Amino acid sequence: MAQAIKRILPMLDRILIQRAEAATTTKGGIVLPEKSVGKVLQGTVVAVGPGARNPQSGNYIPVGVKEGDRVLLPEFGGTRVELEDKKEYILFRESDILAKLE
Known about the structure:
Shape: elongated
Strand content: 25-35%
Oligomer: single chain
Number of domains: 1
Number of strands: 8
CATH superfamily: GroES chaperonin
CATH class: Mainly Beta
Distance between the termini: 25 Å
């Protein structure tokens, strides 16, 4: 997994996120059908671009998250990316991320 992700470096203020898996069973062991499981709106930051450019100075404006951070995502949006490890990742701009979870 690490080799496939290291080949992707998001540009500017874009962030590559792996969405958290939805729970498919309850605490009591009941298996839930796919249709009843809602979208998970949390994810883990996998890769971060250098940041947006400041138009006056040309310097990068640092991104507010780093690799490994947990973030709250919007229900819709982002660009889906499937890598060699057959996992689905989503590419968001920094401004699209709703919150950083601690």
